Amino acid sequence: MKTITEKDKISIPELKLMSEKMFGGLVKAVVDIEQKIMVVDAGLHADQEYILLEEGSKQEHLWGINIFPDQFGNNEFIVFDSMINLRPGFGNRSRGVDNPKIQMVIREIVHKLVIP
């Protein structure tokens, strides 16, 4: 697993290497929308979520996504689908991210942290 920050960004070639380990050419990531960081490269979003919680992130700010490096520049680059997103207590009743404003924030963070 690797934590990605504004100071330590990740490139598309790095993401492509990570995606080779996963079925479907994806890289799992958990984004902290408050701290504007993400953790990538794990088999489960729950493992990434655990790391961020241990480092002080708050549950309500963590969202699981799948990044498809081969789709960089397209709408399919980021897919909102993770079991950790299923949180009815926080108003999210699906594995996706139901709130379009939160989706927009996640997209902005990912696009700032990923470089071509």
Structure description:
It is a single chain. The chain has 116 residues and is an alpha+beta fold. The chain has one domain (2-115). Helices cover 28% and strands 22% of the residues. The protein is built from three helices and seven strands, in the order ββαββαββαβ. The strands form two sheets. It has a five-stranded antiparallel beta sheet, with helices on both faces. The chain has a two-stranded parallel ribbon with strand order 2-7. The mean pLDDT is 96.
Write the layout of secondary structure elements.
Blueprint: E1 2-4, E2 10-11, H1 12-19, E3 27-32, E4 37-40, H2 45-54, E5 62-67, E6 78-79, H3 100-113, E7 114-115
Parallel strand pairs: 2-7
Antiparallel strand pairs: 1-4, 3-4, 3-5, 5-6
Low-confidence region ranges: none
How many structural domains are formed by the residues? 1
End-to-end distance = 20 Å
**Which shape, going by the Cα principal axes?**
globular
- What is the spatial order of strands in the main beta sheet? 1-4-3-5-6
Order of helices and strands: EEHEEHEEHE
What proportion of the residues is helical, as a percent range? 25-40%
Strand tally: 7
Quick check: average pLDDT?
Answer: 96
Question: Radius of gyration, Cα only, in angstroms?
Answer: 13 Å
Beta content comes to 15-25%
Pairing-aware structural class of the strands and helices? alpha+beta
What characterizes the major β-sheet?
5 strands, antiparallel
What's the helix count? 3
